[in-house]
Amino acid sequence: MSSNVDHARSSLVLPRYRVPTGVHPELMSPDYGSTRLRVPDRPLNKMPLTLTEVTGPLLGEGRVRESDADMTRQHAGEPIGERIIVHGRVIEEGGRAVANTLVEVWQANSAGRYAHASDEHPAPHDPNFTGVGRCLTDSNGRFRFTTVKPAAYPWLNHTNAWRPAHIHFSLFGRAFTQRLITQMYFPGDPLFYQDPIMLAVRDEGARQRLIAEFDLAETVPEWALAYRFDIVLLGPDATPMEGLDNMEDPEHEEDDR
Amino acid sequence: MSPLTPSLTPSQTIGPFYHHALLWADGPEVVAPGTPGAIRIHGRILDGAGAPVADGLVETWQADSDGGFDHPDDPRGTPGGTAGGTAGGGFRGFGRCPTDETGSWSITTLKPGREPGADGRLQAPHVDVSLYARGLLNRLVTRIYFSDEADANAEDALLTGVEPDRRATLVATREDDGYRFDIVLQGERSTVFFAL
């Protein structure tokens, strides 16, 4: 690149992002019934990235109060359930921390009910739990929420279908290309095998990255267990060197040479 | 897993129960209503059976009216002095609006200016769109162009790269109070979506 001295006046040097393959779920996953009428039935078009895609909203102060990160203290009393800490880092592939970025989470309560008018599961609401949290990552990309452990809940996708307990996460990163909405699961959940949303992530290694890790070191004795969930966003290509391609391709992770 | 190279976290669906977490009172207002030059962009989202997508979330991202971004990865800086969120009405660039029971959504914004594309040539004014919904395991990405920018549209690299008979799905139609942009998820009239 350094030999490329012929800078056209109009050319811009922008971060480069690839289209990831083999990580995200197959959009058309018929076992998840709601995909059938909603997923595009024509191939996606290619999109050469421009300024619009390599920039993105840098949202932050003014949208988050300090109390938004403690979901057990948003009402008059404490919510019922197993109090937990959920923490982690938001980083890019390549390892750079995503600092000062908005993290939004939402979840069912400890009975498996969302504080949402459309949730008709006959489990109790908890007047002391909304199940909504927000925070900004610190300079090292770290976030930390206090909440209660959500419960599994049934849904109508197939006979006796149950969603494994999960917390929804929304991440912005610094570019439109990096925007990610995902779900965090808990280790050892016996419901994974029958959940078509989680199983839509076909790659076993990628699926494992949706499962938080029990984190004894971060537990608070006599108060709360802790789980760690690190989130990795699409990273800009570090260098145009072709030799790095395989290292960055998750499909090759299992190739143990 | 490789201990050296952090690997991308997979996407999962937003599900149907996001509203109380992600909606902001000013989410659909990329600029304050009444700001000089403010336009409304609205539309409906329809599934493969022609039914409205009533639980979707539309997010938009765009340049300001000078084609600028208040962002460190815009190597041009902040042209015109209007980027940086100081354009009229506290321009934010980002919009967020749920769909209602009729599948309708709407944002209030400024028409974006032109910005250079990957090859250095100017792009036509456009707004990037992410669509989230139950049933979508990853977002769908599309772009809004404007029907009253025919000359700019005719030389836009992305738009002219789309199959001719589908380009119109990316062009919002001028109306009295703004523009209409419907999104059709499947079938003959389906909107063009992009891999990102």
Q: What report would you give on this structure?
A:
The complex is a heterodimer of chains A (257) and B (196). In chain A, 7% of the residues lie in helices and 21% in strands. Chain A has 257 residues and is mostly beta strands. Chain A starts with 50 loop residues before the first helix and ends in a 9-residue tail after the last helix. Mean pLDDT of chain A is 89; it is low at 1-9 and 240-257. Chain B is mostly beta strands and 196 residues long. Chain B has three helices and nine strands; from the N terminus they run αββββββααβββ. Residues 80-87 of chain B have low confidence and may be disordered. The interface between A and B is large, with 89 and 78 residues.
Using brief descriptors, characterize the structure shown.
heterodimer; A: 257 residues; mainly beta; Protocatechuate 3,4-Dioxygenase, subunit A; five-stranded mixed sheet; four-stranded antiparallel sheet; 21% strand; disordered C terminus; B: 196 residues; 26% strand
Q: What is the 3D form of chain A?
A: globular
Q: Tally of extended strands of chain A? A: 11
Count of separate DSSP helical elements of chain B: 3
As for the number of domains of chain B, it is 1
- Cα(first) to Cα(last) distance of chain A is 31 Å
Indicate the CATH topology of chain A: Protocatechuate 3,4-Dioxygenase, subunit A
CATH homology group of chain A: Aromatic compound dioxygenase
Give the number of domains of chain A.
Answer: 1
Topology:
The complex is a heterodimer of chains A (257) and B (196).
Chain A: H1 51-54, E1 83-92, E2 102-107, E3 132-136, E4 142-148, E5 153-155, E6 161-163, E7 166-171, E8 180-185, H2 196-199, H3 204-208, E9 213-214, E10 225-228, E11 231-233, H4 245-248
Parallel strand pairs in A: 1-10, 1-11
Antiparallel strand pairs in A: 1-4, 2-3, 2-7, 5-6, 7-8, 9-10
Chain B: H1 19-22, E1 38-46, E2 57-62, E3 94-98, E4 104-110, E5 127-132, E6 140-146, H2 150-154, H3 157-160, E7 171-175, E8 178-180, E9 183-184
Parallel strand pairs in B: 1-8, 1-9, 6-7
Antiparallel strand pairs in B: 1-4, 2-3, 2-5, 5-6, 7-8
